[in-house]
Input
Amino acid sequence: MIDSKREVVRLRETNRSDCKGERELSRSEDGTQEMNFANCYKDVNRANAYATLEFANTYYLAYRDLPEIVAQHVTGTRAIDFGCGTGRSTRFLRKLGLTVTGVDIAEDMLRIARATDPTGDYRLVPGANLDEFPVGSCDLVLSAFTFDNIPGAMKTRIFRDLAKLLTPAGIIVSLVSSPQIYTHEWASFSAKDYPENRLARSGDVVRIITTDFADRRPAEDILCTDESYREIYRQAGLEVIRVLTPLAKGDEPYAWVNETRIAPWVIYVLKRAT
Ligand SMILES: C[S@@+](CC[C@H](N)C(=O)[O-])C[C@H]1O[C@@H](n2cnc3c(N)ncnc32)[C@H](O)[C@@H]1O
Output
């Protein structure tokens, strides 16, 4: 059950050698607090590693269908890339002709995004506070992998805030890891060192290593099933209008492992519920 009444505050984590970055505390309305996740992207070494990723291997499947989704569902040009990281997803949208603001909570990631794309618009949003953006001003919100690291209670609050930014015809494209990514091997990822992932339930921490870059510290994600995502969207006032689970065809120039038969990603296309 998703508790939408919790608010999240941040607590600086000093030991970053395990790529735990900045820990986040979840605070419920009664004032109790609970340590529940760490954003491993608030880490300069992870940011440098992440900046080397482009659109190859398993990531190819995450981005392959986005141009068609944008062409079919987006009516204007104003976009927010929520959790833009080092700007890969923002640059991708800009190449599609959109005017994009990339936002993130990790300054180390944003610094690289700005250096790579000096004419781009990249902004720090501490606590994922989106108040600087006018209500009803956005034709598209993309979140690519961002919600993998955000606990359920905070997911609902942020999706509700993102929904407010949409124009009446605006959409959110929520690109997330499928639960299967944490229990299989991939061209870009390995989870074989974390057999406990198989026992994880929605809301539990799961670990996975990105093999596409040299930083072999695992990312700590929050498992979120399709059922949980749908409940979060419902609570956030969003309606699912399309779901894609991209599979490789087999003729791509990548050494697929499971990508031709198991989808590593899930792409939800969302609009405001009527
Ligand atoms: C896996 S990276 C993806 C970056 C980019 N979207 C891409 O496709 O390359 C996830 C990003 O989400 C950011 N993030 C995590 N929690 C966030 C939050 N609550 N608000 C904004 N950004 C967040 C992280 O700092 C990180 O840069």
